[in-house]
Design goal:
The complex is a heterodimer of chains A (about 220) and B (about 450). Chain A has helices at about 5-15, 25-35, 40-50, 55-65, 85-90, 90-105, 145-155; strands at about 75-80, 115-120, 135, 140. By secondary structure, chain A is α+β, with helices and mostly antiparallel strands. Chain A has a four-stranded mixed beta sheet, covered by helices on one side. In chain A, helix 1 runs antiparallel to helix 2 (about 25-35) and helix 3 (about 40-50) crosses helix 4 (about 55-65). With about 450 residues, chain B is α/β, with parallel strands linked by helices. In chain B, strand 2 (about 120-125), helix 7 (about 130-145) and strand 3 form a beta-alpha-beta unit. Chain B has 17 helices and ten strands. Chain B starts with about 20 loop residues before the first helix and ends in a 6-residue tail after the last helix. Chain B has helices at about 20-25, 30-40, 40-50, 65-70, 90-100, 100-115, 130-145, 175-180, 210-225, 225-230, 265-270, 305-310, 340-355, 360-375, 385-395, 410-425, 425-435, and strands at about 80-85, 120-125, 160-165, 205-210, 235, 235-240, 240-245, 255-260, 285, 330-335. The mean pLDDT of chain B is about 95. In chain B, helix 13 runs antiparallel to helix 14. Classes of the chains: A alpha+beta (about 220), B alpha/beta (about 450).
Chain lengths: ~220, ~450
């Protein structure tokens, strides 16, 4: 729970260098803080403000607008159940009720052991496989009460550790090249590295797709 | 009219093994469009897209070629691709982003070349974590392949592309809110005028904002010609389109169909698409183009799936007019569905997602949601129906389609539309809720 690590500051600087104006990197950098600390810590947000030349209030003021950012701790696994129209028509509220029973907490709450946070969310864009949910923003469609319980068992047993990273990790694939084109007119700070920078690329084995890929 | 048997365009690679990789993309004609574009030049590319009459696939249906032509001449100009798909019941871009990211990148590059953009940004909805990873991986591969970056394919033309993540906000799908978000701010839609980012967009520079599915059509159009695209469909609605079908159909999913030729009946009942309603039930409500569109009923089953055909149908809004094809997402509800509950759930979405800038929306969505909820749960009053009309009238005066607005963007009106649709179509059922003190479907 602290400022960004040295490695993450380097990642942040490479991200800032991609944009004509540094502030555009704010959302990506907030994802970085959440990946490091699990939620947006004050220290982390203040560090982001320093890196971007903003005030901490500007950082929090932006962060608080977005549903994916948490300024308080959440569980290792954030279980987000969609109840919007297509899911509702296919039993999403019944599923959410079942999820509350299985996990022993109401939507919006975290289990006492800090493993699961359950939340009700808006349309996740997997309506062809309703009802659907995400765990740390990894998708599961055509969810039944039984498959939900199986999913919870798998998560508790650590069987999905490869496909579902801890909460806050937005992407496991990093950009492997910096800006190389002639480039736009730069109105932003001049200290940006322009050369290609090779960074970690650890997550190229992504899980199988399960979007509504019919026809 | 039956489903026409035409080759798919945007979804033709989806389902191939590892369709999201460069190798698979190149094996299936990938980047041929970009090579041809660099050869024929930017005016020729623009001309092909004009000939294709490609309507934007994001929801508003604005001609892509015309949008490009409106770009104010300045330096720099930017291209921003909208992959913030969040309209309830819309799930086509999600599939394209995860299934064929290179096609989006190729379309983006061709467009950036045609409009002379200095840099391009592809904004991916935050929740699409896998989609973001696939897009980033594809972009890395494209750089290595020489398709992006410095001196692309030896043409002397250079550009950088950035994949940008959102963080969970429906309103960022509105193009000016998306630009604010991309600038690192709260996603507040910008006050109009200027009406188009083509005049003042990202960082104040002229900007073209196009949808992911729109971009996915561009490589095919460049390779096969705008005339070939315009030969599909009819009238203003050319080419094919992905229809995202969900709800009570037996086979929900994304179906790419020729525009105008099939009707709602075809897509709902054809065994190759929806394959009918569950348990052989009847159609009660059709949402023709995303949560923001006025509802249709069984009387609209034979309306063709075309922009103007849906727009000019004999709709249900009290001020007259039809509905919209919008984002191409169709929700079907059977006779076991409570229209009050369905309307409430849609309105509650808009209440949650309202950015809070405009009073009619910030207050109105909350009022509509609360009143619909109390009708549904048995505390409704007879005068609540008039109150719902009155609040809706404050957001979209006169309640016609298309509507005039009292708000900066379309979010507030989008809450009034399902409310009014439901009352127009099912007034009796609202009254039963009030009279019986609860929902008859419970």
């Amino acid at each position: 729970m602290a400022r960004l690590s040295k490695e993450n500051v380097e990642r942040a600087e490479r991200t800032i260098a991609l944009y004509p104006h540094a502030r555009s990197a704010l959302i990506p950098l907030l994802h970085l803080v959440q990946e490091q600390d699990g939620h947006l810590t004050n220290d982390g947000m203040e560090h982001v403000a320093e890196l971007l030349g903003l005030t901490p209030a500007e950082v929090l003021g932006t962060a608080s607008f977005y549903d994916m950012f948490f300024t308080h701790p959440v569980g290792t696994y954030l279980v987000s159940v969609c109840t919007n129209i297509a899911c509702m028509l296919n039993g999403a509220y019944e599923l959410l009720e079942h999820a509350e029973q299985t996990l022993g907490v109401k939507a919006g709450a975290t289990t006492p052991d800090g493993t699961f946070t359950l939340e009700e969310v808006e349309c996740l864009a997997l309506c062809g496989n309703a009802p659907c949910l995400t765990v740390n923003w990894r998708f599961f469609g055509d969810v039944t009460d039984d498959s939900f319980d199986g999913l919870v068992d798998d998560l508790r047993a650590g069987r999905l550790a490869d496909t579902i990273p801890p909460h806050g990790t937005h992407a496991r694939v990093a950009r492997s090249v910096g800006l190389v084109a002639a480039g736009p007119a730069k109105a932003a700070p001049a200290k940006k590295p322009r050369a290609a920078a090779v960074v970690d690329n650890k997550g190229d084995s992504a899980p199988e797709p399960r979007s509504g890929e019919r026809k | 009219m039956p489903l026409t048997d035409v080759d798919r365009i945007t979804t033709r690679r989806i389902g191939n093994a590892d369709s999201w990789t460069l190798r698979s993309y190149l094996d299936n004609g990938g980047y041929a469009g970009l090579r041809k574009a660099l050869q024929i030049g930017r005016e020729a590319v623009h001309e092909e897209v004009n000939k294709a009459n490609l309507l934007g696939r994001g929801g508003a249906g604005f001609e892509a070629g015309r949008k490009w032509g409106m770009l104010r001449q300045a330096d720099p100009t930017y291209l921003v691709i909208n992959g913030d798909e969040s309209e309830p019941a819309t799930f086509k871009d999600h599939m394209l982003i995860e299934g064929d990211p290179h096609q989006i990148i190729e379309g983006t590059l061709i467009t950036a070349f045609a409009i002379g953009a200095a840099q391009a940004f592809i904004y991916i909805r935050g929740e699409f974590a896998l989609g973001f990873e696939r897009m980033q991986q594809a972009l890395n591969e494209a750089y290595e392949h020489g398709a992006v970056g410095h001196d692309i394919f030896g043409s002397g033309w250079s550009i950088d592309v950035v994949i940008h993540p959102g963080a969970g906000a429906y309103i960022c799908g509105e193009e000016t809110a998306l630009l604010e978000s991309l600038e690192g701010k709260r996603g507040f839609p910008r006050i109009k005028p200027p009406y188009y980012p083509a005049a003042i967009g990202l960082y104040g520079a002229p900007t073209v904002v196009n949808n992911v599915e729109t971009m996915s059509n561009i490589p095919w159009i460049v390779v096969n010609g705008g005339d070939a695209f315009a030969a599909l469909g009819a009238g203003r609605s050319t080419g094919t389109r992905i229809f995202a079908l969900s709800g009570h159909v037996n086979q929900p999913g994304n179906y790419e169909l020729e525009m105008v030729k099939p009707t709602f009946r075809d897509i709902i009942f054809d065994p190759r698409c929806g394959n009918g309603i569950r348990n052989g039930n009847e159609v009660k409500i059709i949402i023709p183009g995303g949560a923001s569109s006025p509802w249709f009923g069984p009387q609209h089953l034979d309306v063709p799936l075309g922009q103007d055909e849906v727009g000019k149908a004999d709709g249900v809004m009290p001020g007259g007019g039809g509905s919209m094809l919008g984002s191409g997402s169709i929700v079907v509800m059977d006779e076991t569905t409570c229209p009050v509950r369905a309307a409430w759930r849609l309105v509650r979405f808009f209440e949650r997602e309202s950015c809070g800038q405009c009073t009619p929306c910030r207050e109105g969505t909350g009022w509509l949601s609360k009143i619909l909820y109390r009708i549904e749960t048995g505390s409704g009053r007879r005068e609540d129906l008039d109150l719902l009309y009155d609040i809706s009238d404050n957001i979209i005066p006169g309640m016609p389609w298309p509507y005039p607005m009292t708000t900066i963007c379309f979010l507030g009106p989008s809450a009034a539309v399902p409310t009014v649709s439901a009352m127009q179509m099912f007034r009796d059922e609202f009254l039963v809720h009030v009279k019986d003190g609860g929902c008859p479907y419970e």
